[in-house]
Amino acid sequence: MQSTKMFPDVHRAARRRYSILPVPKDLIPSTGESKAQILWVGCSDSWITETAALDVLPQETFVHRNLGSVMSNGDLSSASAIAYCVDLLEVKHIVVCGHYDCVLFKEASEAPTAIDGWYEDLSRLRAANDALLPDLETVQRDRHLAEVYVQAEVEWVRSQPTVAKAIADRGLKVHAFVFDKEEEACVRLVEEGGEEGGVAEANGGPNGVVA
Ligand SMILES: [Zn+2]
After folding, report:
1. If residue 11 lies in a helix (H) or strand (E), which one and from where to where?
2. What range defines the domain where residue 77 resides?
3. Residue 44's CB: how many other CB atoms inside 10 A?
4. From ligand 1's centre to the CA of 179, what distance in Å?
5. What is the tally of structural domains in the chain?
6. How far is the C-alpha of 64 from the C-alpha of 43, rounded, in Å?
7. Residue pLDDT, tens place only, 52-109
């Protein structure tokens, strides 16, 4: 898969307004079949069990994990996962699941290391987020960063030609999740004005950050 769009504008991403919703157990109904219907994109250091979060069978998921749930770098492994799942398996859903307290986010606030470059976009988003929310406590600011980051990744995934075509042609859905280790549960992020924007009052975003 050829990536055709860069990471979203970080200033716009940091200002995104969205709702933070619970993940209903029937968000993605189980088919009970041995066929992947979900591409799950997660972080390597998150403690989540995908099948428990969605209440589906292991056979229904194709799991792709890396450091930070980063798809927008367009690396061969991530691009292949999208191409394989969308074009060949014709999955019905892609879930990009970030999480609070990610090691990558700590790296992104410190001096460059051997993996500098992998999180370059995240570092830029962190700078925009910090500038936007200078008075917020670090924990809350970092939670907001985790939320806007996963939504930026979702925006990037949706913009890829093969994904955009599947969304238009057969109703592929791309979901933004964040996992909370403390709560042992995921939340779902829905952009204000998006397909489910009217479901709940927006409670996330720079002026309404939820701890
Ligand atoms: Zn992580």
Report:
1. helix 10-14
2. 10-191
3. 12
4. 10
5. 1
6. 8
7. 889 999 999 999 999 999 999 989 999 999 999 999 999 999 999 999 988 877 766 6
